[in-house]
Amino acid sequence: MRRILYTIGFSLVLGSSFSCTSSSSEDPLAALLTSPPVVSSVTPQIGTPAQNNTNAMYSATEVLIKGENFGVDTVVRFNEIVAAITLNLGTELYTKVPDGAYSGFITVSKSGGSCLPNTKTGVNCAGMEYFIDCYAATNKQYGSEIELKQGSSLSVEFDGQETKAFHTDTLLSSRNLTIGCESAVTVRVFDRSCKATDYVLQNDPIIPFPAGVATQFYITADSKTCSLVL
């Protein structure tokens, strides 16, 4: 009887030992593979894709993403645009704003994961808001941007041949910008990914602006007072 009890006890202890060893070796690996990434900071949170517009060339903004559990098969997206990762340190990702990026979200997903379109949520996905600013790359060379709200008008005075920077609010519907000036003006309008369209030496131009976007633009004029209506 003693020999039987001893055998049963030894078997229980031995089985428990194997169970503990197996659990401790598998849990960290399982957590690494199944836990979602965590994004704690994005620096800077405002940037621009590469700008190769006439008379204005700026490099894409370099971005540092900090967090944890990024994995090795990591994908960084600006909304749906995939960005190249220049360095992955596990808790830090280095990338650049890709061509075609626009304001919305920057996301990190790992192997087996995916992010829902234009959000920061999904499976094995994390992210933060990110803002595209076409004017910031110039170090505000034309001074502070002037805001023009939809349905409103502005009267702006130009001193000599001067360039001023403007932006609209986010338009609820497509609208036309109407510029009235005693002299011809040159207007540069940026799309949401910082590609520019130039209207050179136009008299009282009427320029279409798209819905759902806060459009940035420049106006260059002589010593005149110009009216802007949106």
What is this structure's SSE topology?
Blueprint: H1 2-34, E1 38-43, E2 46-47, E3 51-53, E4 56-58, E5 62-68, E6 75-78, E7 81-83, E8 85-88, E9 92-96, E10 104-115, E11 122-132, E12 146-148, E13 153-157, E14 162-168, E15 175-180, E16 185-190, E17 196-202, E18 206-209, E19 216-221, E20 225-229
Parallel strand pairs: 2-11, 12-14
Antiparallel strand pairs: 1-5, 3-4, 5-9, 6-7, 6-10, 8-9, 10-11, 13-20, 14-19, 15-18, 15-20, 16-17, 16-19
List keywords for this structure.
single chain, 230 residues, mainly beta, Immunoglobulin-like, Jelly Rolls, 2 domains, 5-stranded mixed sheet, 1 helix, 20 strands, elongated, disordered N terminus
Explain this structure to me?
- InterPro entries: Ig-like_fold (IPR013783), Ig_E-set (IPR014756).
- Keywords: Signal.
- Residues 1-22 form the signal peptide.
- This is IPT/TIG domain-containing protein.
- With 230 residues, the protein is mainly beta.
- It folds into 2 domains: 35-133, Sandwich (Immunoglobulin-like); 138-229, Jelly Rolls (Sandwich), CATH 2.60.120.380.
- Helices cover 14% and strands 47% of the residues.
- It is built from 1 helix and 20 strands.
- The strands form 5 sheets. It has a 5-stranded mixed beta sheet with strand order 2-11-10-6-7, with no helix packed on it. A 5-stranded mixed beta sheet has the order 12-14-19-16-17, with no helix packed on it.
- Strand 16 and strand 17 form a beta hairpin.
- The protein is elongated and about 65 Å long.
- The chain starts with a helix and ends with a strand.
